[in-house]
Amino acid sequence: MAAHPLRVRLLNLLRERGPSTASKLAELLGQSSGATSYHLRQLAAYGFVEDAGCGTGRERWWQATSARTDLDAATALPACRGNHREPPGDGRALAGRVLPRHRAAAALR
What we know:
Blueprint: H1 5-17, E1 20-21, H2 22-29, H3 33-45, E2 49-51, E3 61-64, H4 92-108
Antiparallel strand pairs: 1-3, 2-3
């Protein structure tokens, strides 16, 4: 549900910058406010975001319900269970390829 790219970006922005409106998030992401509003409502339906309660009139502010989301095999959808594979060896080769890209991306934020 939350894996939609725009939803992931919305959730990350709310976690990093705090409460915001669909319009402000749309401007930051180069999207329409209708699209961000729709995806925020979808995130709310599954408990990832909630009304921040600080809006006036038609302005609705949203906030993330948690600082992070942890997924594990016990909470995975039944169709996804058993699809996890451990990397070969001890994982250092994979970490050596992935971590530098992750650090570079984080430095841009």
